[in-house]
Structure formats: structure tokens, C-alpha cells
Design goal:
By secondary structure, this protein is α+β, with helices and mostly antiparallel strands. It contains ten helices and four strands. A hairpin with a 2-residue loop joins strand 2 and strand 3. The radius of gyration is 18 Å and the shape is globular.
Length: 190
């Protein structure tokens, strides 16, 4: 049985969901970002128990097809921006269409309608958050970060960063208290 879970945005989230499944005696085949496949078919009562356990840990079962697709779009973006070391060299709209098996126009319209922002803006905000993280780690120069995040120039990265944060990357780097946002809240702040 395949289940879709909201707010699974990291490896820690996957670990937490695995623990909840184990506590309920459920056997999982796959626990991935936003998706779980379990061996059992759950009764309404067992499904409700699982949902309550997940809610206590900050997750939520999704059973609406549109909501599932929105969550898959978000998780694909989050995985690409925050959890992948290889940058996608094809157009992201093509990548998203290919991965989710839907026409990009449909995905973009659905996302905008439900989220109140575009997929592009969602990606930009996540990239900026990832750039903040890389600046804080202080392992790469701004040029290195621009290359890693697939920007065609440092100026392009700096302009996007400033548009979102109001600060240049170098000014952000000098701040004593650098503010970052939790991944699961980024799409809700736009």
C-alpha cells in the first residue's frame, strides 16, 4: 500500500517516519521523501492511528490527488536543491515533467493555483536558503557557490539573493546572527 506524507523534507524526516511505522508494527518497503510503501493494507482505524502518530511528529497523511502532486513537486525541488550534489544540466521544467510524468504547464498552473506562487519562485527561495547554508559553512567562495548552484554568474546569484533577502551574499556573510528558515516553511513564506 502506497501512502503519501506531507512535510517529509529530509533524511531525518524519513528516519522519524520509519520509527513511527515500526512502533505501529507496520512493515515498509520504501520510505522516501513524501512517500511510503508498506506491505500491509490498512483498515480505516489503522490508517487513523498512523495519521495521529505522524501528526504528533509533525507529518500528515495526504489522500487528495492534487495535494499529493503538489507535495511531489515540492519534494522534487527540495531534493534537487538541498540534497543533491549533482546539478541538473537540463531545463528544470523538462526535468520536473519527466520525473513526475505530467505536462509542465499543468504542473505550473496547479502549483500556482494551490500555493499562490510559481514553481520558479519556489525554486528561487529554496536556492537562496541553500546559498545561505553554503555561506555559513564557509567552505566555498561565492564563485564556487554560484557554480555549485548552477548560476551562470556570480552577479546573477547576487541579484537573486538580494531580491529575496534584501542583502548581498557578502553582507549576509558578515552578519553575526545569520537567519535561516526550516525547509518545510520556505514555500509557506513566499
Amino acid at each position: 500500500m502506497k501512502l503519501h506524507i506531507k512535510y517529509m523534507v529530509s533524511n531525518r524526516c524519513k528516519m522519524a517516519v520509519r520509527e513511527e511505522l515500526k512502533k505501529l508494527g507496520l512493515h515498509f518497503i520504501i520510505v522516501d521523501m513524501g512517500e511510503v510503501e508498506i506491505m500491509e493494507n490498512l483498515s480505516g482505524e489503522k490508517l487513523e492511528q498512523l495519521n495521529i502518530a505522524l501528526l504528533k511528529s509533525g507529518f500528515e497523511l495526504i489522500n487528495n490527488r492534487r495535494a499529493v502532486l503538489i507535495e511531489r513537486i515540492k519534494n522534487t525541488i527540495i531534493e534537487m536543491v538541498h540534497h543533491s550534489d549533482k546539478m541538473i544540466k537540463i531545463n528544470f521544467s523538462d526535468f520536473l515533467s519527466e520525473k513526475l510524468k505530467y505536462d509542465y504547464t499543468y504542473l505550473a498552473n496547479l502549483f500556482s493555483e494551490v500555493q499562490g506562487t510559481t514553481i520558479e519562485q519556489f525554486i528561487i527561495h529554496h536556492k537562496v536558503e541553500r546559498i545561505k547554508e553554503l555561506i555559513i559553512y564557509d567552505e566555498l567562495s561565492i564563485t564556487g557557490i554560484a557554480w555549485k548552484m548552477n548560476y551562470n554568474s556570480v552577479a546573477h546569484l547576487s541579484n537573486q539573493f538580494k531580491k529575496v533577502t534584501g542583502l548581498s551574499p557578502s553582507h549576509f556573510k558578515k552578519l553575526k546572527k545569520k537567519r535561516r528558515s526550516p525547509i518545510e516553511e520556505i514555500g509557506n513564506m513566499i
